[in-house]
User: Fold this.
Amino acid sequence: MRRVFILRPEPGASRTAEKAARLGLDAVLHPLFAPHSLDWTPPSPTDFDALLLTSANAARLAGPALADFCALPAYAVGRATADALRAQGFTQVVTGEGDGSAIAAMIARDGHRAALHLAGTTVAPMDAGPLSITRIAVYSMAALPADPLIRQAMEPGSVLLVHSPRAGERLAEHIVQTGRADLHVIAISQAALAACGTGWASLQAPVRPSDDDMLALARTLCEGLGR
Assistant:
């Protein structure tokens, strides 16, 4: 069976691995980053009429100050982020599919004008449209040391899952151009795909930027390679 390498940080890596196992995939966890909380000064909740989170890590690592915003309607990109908000006591949570631009448009359509975006230090480009967004970094991703044995574990035909542009950049640093020809990359977005560089056996990104759609591509690819 072809191996699928999950490069995203925990706890998301384990969630992806559980889904992969249900699909019959041989998943290997190899996070390239680990999240760390940052000190931040919360603004006044009265300055905003909505809260926006594009990562579950923001809910987990924002700390006690996050509770100051529980009265605001909270918008989350993806179910994992929504679940993380609910675990922190939020009751008004709207789950959006797609990317940050899509949920910013949803927030504006719902009549909100000023949103507080709690995020990491690195954020994917977002079209805010008519929405006024104040972004505060509450966590960062620290790169983990490269494992010198990881390339040996990546057998020919292995599939690498890349969940962010930064992970794509880190992967390109780990595996030099001459070591890519027998490895397949599935990235969560075109931006993440581009960050991986060239020279791979194949490069794909799903139409929707979702973990489930990445795994569906991985399963199809593994089944095709197995013939």
Remarks:
- The first helix runs from residue 12 to 22.
- Residues 40-140 form a domain with the Rossmann fold fold (CATH 3.40.50.10090).
- The two ends are 11 Å apart (CA to CA).
